[in-house]
Amino acid sequence: MAGSENMAELFKDPEHAATYANRPKQIIPGFDGLHRITGQLIAEASPKTILALGGGGGLETRTLLDHVPEARVCAVDPSAEMLAQGKAYLQDDARVDWVEGLIFDAPEGPFDAATCLLTLHFVPDDGAKLETLKALRARLKSGAPFVIAHLSIDKADPKSDLHFERYLRFAQASGMDEQALEKAHKRVREMLNCVGPERDEQLLREAGFSGIELVFKGLYWCGWVAYA
Ligand SMILES: C[S@@+](CC[C@H](N)C(=O)[O-])C[C@H]1O[C@@H](n2cnc3c(N)ncnc32)[C@H](O)[C@@H]1O
């Protein structure tokens, strides 16, 4: 199944969803830059319609509308709680369509652009990541830009322990609650379905994207632009 069991279920926990908005900044080095880069590269295409996969929390939807005010954004997310958060965060902006589900539940489009921020690392690399990317590309016009970013660590890499440790230290230095962080770190280490950057790029190619470029790196958080 092309879903994302385990860690993704956390986002269906009302408390986890309610406290979401400040967390990415504390965990991701250069989070604001990632959002500005995403907005800038998507705006290059002057899109009228944008698909935001995993866009429930509302943060990237906000960024997209700030950069392309004339666009409509379709935010697709399996968590009703995150969609409710996003809706409130965007003050029920009429330019946003909120769709509960996976990419397969999204309208067929075709859309002029798409994003998938901090989401694909939840999806297992057992065919589900590839199916998700293919289904997303199938919903884009030819040549449309796609910005995708997430944690990119190959768990089989002997250096991965050091890389996860650095992830933890960065979040600690942001002043996050120590106990919550220890728990979160264990979850990320054991349950996140992240892969290394080479595999991420291979999946984008296999899904049919071209012009793939790494446009963001903050420790082991990587972001790419690619074209359908
Ligand atoms: C860390 S949040 C990121 C939210 C938003 N993209 C942002 O940048 O603020 C990850 C989101 O991905 C959603 N998610 C998990 N698995 C997913 C899947 N297979 N397809 C789409 N969204 C998924 C979660 O429900 C959650 O809302």
Can you tell me about this structure?
The structure is a single chain. The chain has 228 residues and is α/β, with parallel strands linked by helices. It has a single domain, classed as Vaccinia Virus protein VP39 (Rossmann fold, 3-Layer(aba) Sandwich). The chain contains nine helices and seven strands; from the N terminus they run H-H-H-E-H-E-H-E-E-H-E-H-H-H-E-E. A seven-stranded mixed β-sheet has the order 3-2-1-4-5-7-6, sandwiched between helices. Strand 6 and strand 7 form a beta hairpin. Helix 3 crosses helix 4 and helix 7 runs antiparallel to helix 8. The protein is globular and about 45 Å long. Bound molecules: S-adenosylmethionine. The site of S-adenosylmethionine has 21 residues, from helix 4.
Q: What is the strand and helix layout of this fold?
A:
Blueprint: H1 14-18, H2 23-27, H3 31-43, E1 49-53, H4 59-67, E2 72-77, H5 80-89, E3 96-100, E4 113-117, H6 128-137, E5 145-151, H7 160-173, H8 178-191, H9 197-206, E6 210-218, E7 221-227
Helix pairs in contact: 3-4, 7-8
S-adenosylmethionine binds at residues 3-4, 8, 11, 53-57, 59-60, 77-79, 82, 102, 117-119, 122-123.
- Bound ligand species: S-adenosylmethionine
Classify the secondary structure makeup into a structural class: alpha/beta
Kindly provide the name of the CATH class.
Alpha Beta
What's the rounded overall pLDDT mean?
A: 93
The succession of helices and strands, N to C, reads: HHHEHEHEEHEHHHEE
Give the overall silhouette: globular
How many E-type strands?
7
Determine the strand fraction and express it as a percent band. 15-25%
Q: What's the helix count? A: 9
The CATH architecture can be given as 3-Layer(aba) Sandwich
Main β sheet profile? 7 strands, mixed
Strand order of the largest sheet: 3-2-1-4-5-7-6
Q: Identify low-pLDDT runs.
A: none
What level of helicity do the residues show?
Answer: 25-40%
CATH topology grouping: Rossmann fold
Q: Tell me the CATH superfamily.
A: Vaccinia Virus protein VP39
Number of domains: 1
Straight-line N-to-C gap: 24 Å
